[in-house]
Amino acid sequence: MSKFLEVIFISLCTFLFCPSIACASVDIASTNTNTTSSTQSSSEVPAGKYDWNSVMDAIIEVESGGNNRARSGSSAGPMQITPVLVRECNNILRKKNSKKRFKLSDRFSVAKSKEMFLLIQEVFNPLNSIEKAIRSWNGGVHYSVKRTQLYLNKVLEKMK
């Protein structure tokens, strides 16, 4: 039963962070190869609050060029947020016993998009790794270092 739940969790996370990859076949046994294990070092920030503004602003530039109305497939808004990510944010809020909920239309708001980004980082990136944040925004929780390298380079370049 735990293997079944693991498969469901991996599938949900894949749809959440990168719906285009989710449509491709995934080998569950190899989801940990070429992932974050070798990348969490100098870009981690100790526990506490990290100022993600420069990262979020760079992601907005790369994802949409600052266009709040940008659309690509099911992704929309300045940070190209998917409906699955909105649902995941609402699930997180529900688990925190918060009455706040995001709507699909919130993807078009820079402020609400940033709130969703921060919520996802709080849950899936508790060590505040900048590299992990950027790569997982592009490639999902079980991202491939190789497949997210170009995106990472683009975002880091915008942060300069």
Q: How are the secondary structure elements laid out?
A:
Blueprint: H1 2-17, H2 19-22, H3 53-64, E1 71-72, E2 75-76, H4 83-95, H5 110-124, H6 130-139, H7 145-159
The portion of residues assigned to helices is 40-55%
Mean pLDDT: 81
What count of structural domains? 1
Indicate the CATH architecture: Orthogonal Bundle
Name the helix and strand elements from N-terminus to C-terminus, one letter apiece. HHHEEHHHH
What is the CATH first-level class name?
Mainly Alpha
- Helix/strand structural class: mainly alpha
Q: Strand count, sense and closure of the main sheet?
A: 2 strands, antiparallel
Total E-strand runs: 2
Keywords: Signal
Organism: Segatella bryantii (Prevotella bryantii)
Protein name: Transglycosylase SLT domain-containing protein
Would you write up a description of this structure?
The protein is mostly helical. Helix 6 packs across helix 7. The termini are far apart. Mean pLDDT is 81; it is low at 18-42. The protein has one domain (2-25, 50-159): Lysozyme. It is built from 7 helices and 2 strands. The protein has a two-stranded antiparallel sheet.
Q: What are the defining features of this structure?
A:
two-stranded antiparallel sheet; 2% strand; Lysozyme; 160 residues; Lysozyme-like_dom_sf; single chain; globular; 7 helices; mainly alpha
Summarize it.
By secondary structure, this protein is mostly helical. The chain has seven helices and two strands.
